[in-house]
Structure formats: C-alpha cells, structure tokens
Write a structure and sequence with these properties.
Keywords: Antibiotic resistance, Cell membrane, Membrane, Transmembrane, Transmembrane helix, Transport. One of its GO terms (cellular component) is ATP-binding cassette (ABC) transporter complex. By secondary structure, the chain is mostly helical. It has one domain. Helices cover 70% and strands 2% of the residues. The relative contact order is 0.15.
Length: 266
C-alpha cells in the first residue's frame, strides 16, 4: 500500500466525521488526565465560596437586575461563564501550542486522511465537550444550593456551549500568532483584567460611563450576560449576546483555519 503524501490531505474536503475523530482521540487521552477537568470544576467553586459567600456576607443583595438578588446568585453565573472561557482558551492555546511545537502531533495526524480544517474543527468540538461537562456539573452543584432557577437554568448548558465555541475559536486564532511559551503571559494580560471587569463581581452601573463602554465590548461581558439571563431570568438582551458570540466565533474560526493551513502546509 502506498503511503499518502503529506500534502494530499489538504485537498480532502471537510467532513464532520473526521473532525469528530479528534474528539475521540482527546477522550482517550483524558481518560488518564481527567483530574484536569476536576480542576476546571473546582476553581469556580472556590471563587464562589471566597467571593460569593465570603464577601457576600458583607455586600448583601445586589439591586438593578429587575429584582434584588443575593450576591452569590449574582456571582455564580459569571463564574460559570468564566469557566467556559478558560476551558476553551486553555485547550486551544496552551494544549494546541504544545501539539504544534513540542510534540509535533499534527504533523503525524496530517499524514492520515485528515485535513487541517478537520483538525481545527475537531479541537473546537473537544473544547465544547469540556465546556458542557464543566457547565453541567457546576449547574448541578449551584442548583443544590438554590442559586439557579430550574428548569429555566437548563439554558445555561447551550449558553456555555456557545461561549466555549466563541473562545475556542479565538484561542485557535491566538495560537497561530504565538512565537514562544513566554507569549502566554500576554494572553493572561488580556484575560485577567477581562475576568475582573466584565461584571463578574460588580454590576455594570458601578463603573463610570467610559469604563462601561469599554466593558460592553468585551466578549466575557456578553458571556456573563447570557449565562446570568439563563440563571436568573434577568440581565440584558440575550439575543445581543448570542449574535455577538456567534459572529465572533465564526469569524475567528474562519481566519484561524486559514492561518493554520499556512502554518501546517507551508
């Protein structure tokens, strides 16, 4: 049997089944590294205990969302949106960069009937699977403590999938610009302020108007608004958040695939 030339798979059209093969590969690997997923679940829980419960005893209720709600109820959906963001970004930046540079994983994969587009879409699919697992477990836990309104809060799961898609695509695009491991500090330089300012711990109206305008263009702000609306039935217009995140994800994915094809098929 003649081996397929390295460049041949670039001509193979995108097929969802081939993209799902990447998900199956990651599932087999994560059977041995599943504590990583536990860390993604426990991190927002710790934030919820520290800020939602600890600081919440001093803050009291949060007005301005259509009804006065407790501070833990305000913080919980924002932490879930942040967990979906972090999981997707970590998968398509840190993990993918290792596969691209240190491990050379994709060079081996592309000798099979897999296209670069299938690989990219498969990694995004896997980020969505991770996001769905984290969102479901987090939702179950906070529902036990009465912080989510069921059954309406079940909309959190598709919301988390959309957030995961948007940030996985952004992460996929970002990884094509990274020059070394040190560049990951630049990613944190963007993500940490976004986490702190995107109404995670404070309502939007506590900021001066110029800061509000800046916050309103952040993707995490729209993610928080979307999840908060599902959790509490309050917040901004969910349609705006859905359109924002969908367009962001589609555009970022399209550009990322082109850049990956240039990188892996020089």
């Amino acid at each position: 049997m003649t081996a397929m030339p390295t460049g041949a798979s670039a001509e193979i059209p995108l097929r969802p089944g081939r993209a799902w093969t990447m998900v199956e590969r990651n599932l087999m690997i994560y059977r041995h590294t599943w504590p990583v997923l536990l860390a993604e679940i426990f991190e927002p829980m710790l934030y919820l205990l520290a800020f939602g419960v600890g600081v919440g005893l001093l803050v009291g209720d949060v007005p301005g969302l259509g009804a006065s709600i407790s501070y833990p109820q305000f913080v919980a959906p924002a932490l879930l949106a942040t967990a979906a963001m972090n999981g997707a970004m970590n998968e398509t930046t840190f993990n993918m960069y290792g596969k691209l540079t240190t491990d050379k994983t994709y060079e081996s994969i592309l000798t099979t009937p897999m296209s670069v587009r299938s690989v990219a879409l498969g990694e995004v699919f896997w980020a969505l699977v991770r996001g769905a697992i984290v969102a479901t477990v987090f939702l179950v836990v906070v529902s036990i403590f009465g912080l989510a309104n069921l059954p309406e809060a079940l909309l959190v799961i598709p919301s988390a999938l959309l957030i995961g898609f948007a940030f996985a695509a952004v992460g996929l695009l970002t990884v094509t610009f990274l020059r070394s491991w040190q560049d990951f500090q630049l990613i944190q330089l963007v993500m940490l302020p976004m986490f702190l300012f995107a109404t995670t711990f404070f309502p939007l109206d506590v900021y001066p108007r110029p800061v509000q305008v800046f916050v309103e263009v952040l993707p995490l702000y729209h993610s928080v608004e979307l999840v908060r609306a599902a959790f509490l039935g309050t917040g901004g217009n969910p349609a705006v958040a859905v359109i924002y995140l969908a367009v962001l994800g589609i555009v970022a994915l399209a550009v990322a695939v082109r850049r990956l094809e240039d990188t892996l098929r020089p």
